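hey all, quick one before standup. I had two proteins in the batch that finished overnight and I want to keep them in one place so we stop losing track of which output belongs to which input. First protein below, input sequence then structure tokens straight from the run.
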Amino acid sequence: MGFIEEIQRRRTFAIISHPDAGKTTLTEKLLLFGGAIHVAGAVKSNKIKKTATSDFMEIEKQRGISVATSVMGFEYKDHKVNILDTPGHQDFAEDTFRTLTAVDSVIIVVDAAKGVENQTRKLMEVCRMRNTPVMVFINKMDRPSKDPFDLLDEVEEELKIKVRPLSWPIGNGTSFQGVYNLFEHNLNLFEASKQTVEESIAFDDINNPALENIIGEEPAGLLREELELVEGVYPEFAVDDYLHGELAPVFFGSALNNFGVNELLNCFIEIAPKPQPSTTDTRTIAPNEDKFTGFVFKIHATWIPITETELPL
């Protein structure tokens, strides 16, 4: 494969959120779907003593939070995807601010019960300054959540960006049955299992009476009403608006249960930007220049302990 082709197929992005919104869990599930790992780690808890794959420092394992940005990559549908899992905690926000200068796009994770929180607002300010394209993943729909329209209003108001839902939830909490995928026109049914990929049913016509047989009469009626409102309230999705940082596509799901992650990933590799030019103090550097170019946003000292006998003389 040639140099230009390699550039075209790359997608480099950061995942940002307020602490505990599910950012690192989403990162690991993306790696799981991409085949980079086979079993997702879990953040340290009373029942699970494993730590997240992307959390490799001792302080991260002790506190159960991401402290430093981790860079991970995998191949997916002929694309090379690079994920930068950033710290969510405000004590380590400076690392995230640096990271946002090195990515071409961003996925924002929002807790469906808590909505947009303070750290997310601060990070979005950096994205707005750089016109970075953003996608929003509203997480934890399997728990009691805010009304989806209220969540979208909150995202628009707090993050100061127009939104366009590309999936729509069917219920929430114990009544959560899945989502209707507006991007791919199918039903994705939810099953509360951490290792199960959701069942997907092609469903172009939401008015098809078969919908009642799948999700029930009342949920079907409500879904049709809400989708009609979505089409009337929110702008048509335009990729150019997304790429210019003017419109954020929104997906709903549950990262812990692997739900909604595959749809997010499929849409992401289709619409997310390839490597973009970088403006420096002296000139703009294009990704396809003849000389090797890269953006250094941080340097790690080695994390591997060495003994006195291994020190150079």
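OK second protein, same deal, sequence then tokens:
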Amino acid sequence: MGAGHDHGTQVLRAAERHRGRLWATFALLAAYMVVEAAAALAIGSLALLSDAGHMFTDVLGIGMALAAITAGRRRRDDPQRTFGLYRLEVLAALANAVLLFGVAIYVLVEAVRRFGEPPEVRSTPMLVVAVGGLLVNLVAFGLLRRGAEESINLRGAYLEVLGDLLGSAGVIAAAAVIAVTDWWWADPVVAVGIGLFILPRTWRLGRAALRILVQAAPEHLDVPAVQARLCAVRGVTDVHDLHVWTLTSGMEVASAHLTVSSGSEVGTVLAEARTALRDDFHIEHATLQVEPGAPPDDACGPQSW
């Protein structure tokens, strides 16, 4: 698979480099999730329970990321999987988004129900647990920050931890308000805020994963511009059947048919076309089919654009 395979291996290794940080984050969040959920049930805080539920999706999402990395390491040389198991990362990110959406909807529905008659909540233990959650999320945030730049799955976990960080701050604020004013509505109000904060981030993560799964062109790439650039390669008279998609985080793939003029050196055309895709669009893996022959009526040229 050439350069594309090398780049895909680099993507996988980039995730592997953060494996230790993922395990540390997983253990830390899993332990505190149990503490937070138990405390939420004991004191009756919906805001704290929503934060614990969000933390649960963090734990599950990071667990799926670790599973995807492990599977990718074990199966990338399997000849029956010509693209390895890179898509497991994307599937994990999509599953994570679905879980987050479910948590957000539950929190919003339960919060609306509580607005009618908000239960009393013990503010002191609520505040103590929320402060602990804030500290735990700060540590997790630091552990995942670098990896979020290299992997969609790690980015999903990172965004969830960021959401938890803000959620913990909201729970602290609610506990303080209840302690000072006995305004019990602060608990469901903060729960609604956390739920509404989760939803748009969930949408963006799910949309990014779905774009990859349906093999849509990357949003940052202008496909007509890619076609025009290939048309500008010396000897190319037409470009058709052009497809550009993302295999996994940071690995764009392209395929195209290039019609070349008679007398053109095929090897030179291919080399220049691959160089153009790599240098101008960061597409490392391209499958290009060269077809000698006369250009069709809608061939490359100023009149086509």
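Flagging for whoever picks this up: The two ends are 33 Å apart (CA to CA). The chain has nine helices and three strands.
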